[in-house]
Amino acid sequence: MILVIGSLNIDTVIRVAQFPQSGETIIGKSLLNTHGGKGANQACAVGKLGADIKMLGCVGMDSFGDEQLNQLQAYGVDVSSIKRTKTEPTGNAIICVNDSGNNNIIVIQGANKECSVEYLKEHDDDINNCEYVILQMEIPHDAIEYAVKRAKELNKIVILNPAPAPEQMSEQIYKYVDYLTPNETELATLTGDPVAKNKNEIIKSAKKLLAKGVKNVIVTLGDKGALWVNAVDTIMCIASTVDAVDTTAAGDCFNGAFVVALSEGKSIMGAMKFANKAASISVTRRGAQISIPIRTEVDNCL
Question: How many CA atoms are closer than 13 Å to the CA of 16, on its beta-carbon side?
């Protein structure tokens, strides 16, 4: 089983011709509320791609929380351990998407703040019963540190998607992570390096994270694919060329698909190819969870 520990949000998606400059007022093209949150998106990807999936996280006692849980259940996600809280509303993300398909995002944590160490301790059986644990950075960082450490104590495979990347992350986290999956910007934030301009600069930055104890760094590069760096080798996996209309949740789709492929026994390179293909399909559609393909779509493309 795959366990996702992370955020659940309602996404408010605003489409614009181009992003506004500081102090500028523009007219948006449309507004849509849909289901998101990096944790929920990754759980959705795992479920849509046919793997056994459970999620830990928190939503409010509101209609948005109801919608999110119903949606995940429809995609095959076990939501029985997700916490409902009366003190905070379901998290929200304001996503602005331009005509090129690029986006910027503002996240309001809400109930995600209650995905605490205490909550995770209450659900230790869920960590113990899985094989893979995947996390992101939209829940409290002390809970992330506890989760990765506890997962390794139980001999689980840990995948950490450091998004949004903190300017300072506990050095203790790295040594518990089997796969760290930043994009180029997140890699720069974690290392303090400028955003890499070429493959050699990416490798140099990734090796800084390997030196901290991470076993594998997989840098997602958007339409260029993904680069895998570990202590022994460096391999580039090229993505398919597609006409992107919305990149929202593409990274989440990649991460979910990557773990699904690993859980099925694929090699790291095979898992990257599978994840690249799933993500390349997702960017041809609008939205977050609704853009993620089902298994037959990915298999047919491969």
Answer: 18
pTM: 0.91
Residue type, 193: D
Question: Which structure tokens are listed for 129?
Answer: 């019963």
The residue with tokens 């992570």 is 177
Over the stretch 29-61, which tens digit does the pLDDT of each residue have?
Answer: 999 888 989 999 999 999 999 999 999 999 999
| Distance in angstroms (rounded) separating the CA atoms of residues 113 and 285 | 30
pLDDT in tens, 101-151: 788 888 889 999 999 999 999 999 999 999 999 999 999 999 999 999 999
Instruction: Count the neighbouring beta carbons within 10 Å of the beta carbon of residue 197.
Output: 9
| pLDDT tens per residue, range 261-275 | 999 999 999 999 999
End-to-end CA distance of the chain: 24
126, 178, 246, 252: which one is catalytic? 252
Q: Based on the residue annotation, tell me whether 99 is a catalytic residue of this protein.
A: no
- Residues 49 and 169: their CA atoms lie apart, in Å, by 31
Q: Is 295 exposed, middle or buried (0-12, 13-18, 19+ CB in 10 A)?
A: middle
For 139, residues 6+ apart whose C-beta sits below 8 A from its C-beta are 5, 6, 7, 39, 57, 112, 113, 115
Reduced to 3 states, what is the DSSP secondary structure of residue 78?
A: strand
Q: What Rg value do the Cα atoms of the chain yield, rounded?
A: 18
Question: Which tokens go with 37?
Answer: 């949150």
